[in-house]
Structure formats: structure tokens, C-alpha cells
Protein: J domain-containing protein
Amino acid sequence: MDIKVTLVLVIFNLGFAYGFFEGIYCGVDNCYDVLNVTRESTKEEITKAYRKLARKHHPDVHKTAEAKAEASEKFTKLAAAYEILRDDEQRKDYNYMLDNPDEVYRHYYHYYRRRYAPKVDVRIVIVITITVISGIQYWACLSKYNEAIDYFLTIPKYRIKATEIAKDEGLLDHSAANRKKNRFKSKDEIRQEEERVLRKIIEEKMDIKGAYAKPKITDVLWIQLFLLPITIFNWIYFQIRWIYKFSICKEEYGDEEFEYLIRKNMSLSKSQYDALDADEKLEYLELELWDKDKFKTWKQEKDDEMRAKLAESGVAKRYRRWKKKGGPGQITFLDD
Structure:
């Protein structure tokens, strides 16, 4: 038993000393020896040696089942060795393994990392991902915009106004001559044509802002990334200009600066603030909400007002009654 253990250890240590490990690269065989080449052989010489041996040991060349099985095993080793040595990165890792047989775990890690790593260039993946996100982003904004236009078409006030504009511009003509001209069209076709006219007028006349605004190509991720250096430069320039004008030179704020401070206090982006009504913006300016103390007082009043409304709402009253009767522990057969 001791002799057998000693032999196993000797064989294992020999393999370890020469950097051959089962399960990675060519196993206990030397990839260079499998192809009858040396470490100094060029890629062309390795390819030439592989093709020569592949023709010789291809299973189809042999006739008997035993010869085919032996050739198939040899051919598999040749293919594995060629795959490793023809790739510069794998060959570099393999040579490092031969020179540093003691770093066992590092060799396993590098082998399986390269073997199972994605073969696609990461840059291509990033480009495709950004493109898909940009497309989805633009499509979502366009869908929201179309929803807003469809909604305005259902509101009588806007529909009547659009109809009047269409008649004034001659886009809708209900005269006898026009009815005679459209006599071969069905009622559905005439109605769809009128809807297209009204929709176009609403699109041109309505200034929709905020989340339902008409999408711009400059809002998609690709363009935003492209314009990122300019955006950063403009932000730095704005901060320096602000400090110089109002902190160093002590200049007075204008309406633009007051609105910026209001937006900052209210945590609104420029697009969100622009979506507000003109009367609402004027009210904020008149209340001097650019002042932090005045803004806090105004905010507290709004919060108290909202809480009072909620306290008087039917939902809040039902909730208080429900809590008073036992809350989640009670059993009831009522719908509300």
C-alpha cells in the first residue's frame, strides 16, 4: 500500500512540476508535444502542423471501429491543443502555467474565465444597449405625447376651437360642392379625414409641456451622452458666473435668478418648472418663494392645508371608523 501511495504522489508531483493539470488545457499532455511543435513555433507553423496531423488522424480515414475510436481520441486532443495555441491570449496563459506550475488556482481561474467569457466585444454590447434604451425612451415619450393629443381631442372646448380654426383655414369644408366631391367616400373615411385635420391643428396650436411634451431627439440617451461634456461645461460656467456676480460683485437678482432659486427650493427641474402655468409662476414670484424662510412657511401652510383636506375626506373618515372598530383584526362582510 505504501509503495502505491508513493507512486501516486510521485506521478502527481511530476505533473505538478511540469505544470500539467487534469481538466484544463491539454490535461496531462503538453499541447506543444501533441502538435509536434515547440514554444518558439509561429502561428503559421502551428496551423501547418495541426492540418498535417488532422488529416492523418481523422476518424473518417480509418476503417475498423477500434482504429476509428483511437483516431477520434487523438483528433480531439489535436483540436484542443490547436485551439489553445492559435489564440495569443490562451497561449500566453498556457506558457505562464508551464513556467509557474505552483500557481494552481490561478491557472484554473484564467482557463475557465477565458473559456466561458462572452466572445462578443464589450464595446459592441454597450453600443447596442445604449441604442436600445434610446429607442425605447423615444418611443415611450412619443406614446405619451400621442395619448395627450388623443385626450385633448375628446375635450369639447379644444375640439370646438380646433374645428373653428380648421373652418377658417378652409381645411374643413361642409359645403354642397365639397359634399358632392366626397360622395364616393364612406362616412368612416370622411370622419377619419376630419379627425386627422383636427389632430394636426391641436398638435400645432397646443403647447404641451412636462412629461407629455412632444419628444425631441436631443432628449434621448445617445444625444445626452454626446452632449455630456457641453452640459458639464455649462454647469461649471453657471456656478462660476453665479459666484462672481452675486457673491463677489454683490449684484441684485433678476427674474431669471429668482425663478432658479424657486426651482431649487421646490426641487423642480427646468422642464418641470416650465410646465407650470404662467399664473402659478407669477404667484410664486409675488410670494417671494426664492427666500428659504418664506418658502418653508409657505410649504408648511400647504402641507397643513393638505392634511386638513385629507382629514375631512370620506376615505379618511372611513379609515378612522375602521381603526376605531378594531382595525385589521376585525371581521366584516361590508364591501368598504
